[in-house]
Amino acid sequence: MRGLWGRSRRERDDTPGHSRTRPEHDVDTALIIEAARHVVTTRVATQASLARHLFVAPIMADELLARLEHCEVVGPATPGPSRRVLATSAELPGIIAEFERREETGD
Q1: Which domain holds residue 64?
Q2: Is residue 40 domain-resident?
Q3: What's the rounded Cα separation, in Å, for the pair 96 and 3?
Q4: What are the phi and psi torsion angles at 94 (to 5°)?
Q5: Which CATH number goes with the domain that contains 94?
Q6: pLDDT one digit per residue (tens) for the chain, 107 residues
Q7: Is residue 84 part of a domain?
Q8: Assigned domain for 16 exists
Q9: Continuous segment of H or E residues that includes residue 13
Q10: How many domains does the chain have?
Q11: Which residues form a coiled coil (predicted)?
Q12: Strands (DSSP E) found in 1-107
């Protein structure tokens, strides 16, 4: 069974044939947390919504969505602008705590 964070770093990095298992650019943890809060509370997961509410460029909004998808906060991209929000408000404190823990440990 996959956990909240998917496969371990070693599995992601060493698996042949997986071209993009992690977002390409480093994203600040505080910004990821804000994106998670916004997406879960509004139940809207679009590039435009993140760009507008977090004051980031569209490319950064895409990176945030990729990171949130990797952590199973939102579902994969589908036809249309919005992604399905998988996490609930009740899960948000645990998600934020996990982001903060991973930032401290460097995972």
Answers
A1: 26-105
A2: yes
A3: 15
A4: -70, -35
A5: 1.10.10.10
A6: 344 554 444 444 444 443 344 445 567 999 999 999 999 999 999 999 999 999 999 999 999 999 999 999 999 998 988 999 999 999 999 999 999 998 898 87
A7: yes
A8: no
A9: helix 9-14
A10: 1
A11: none
A12: none
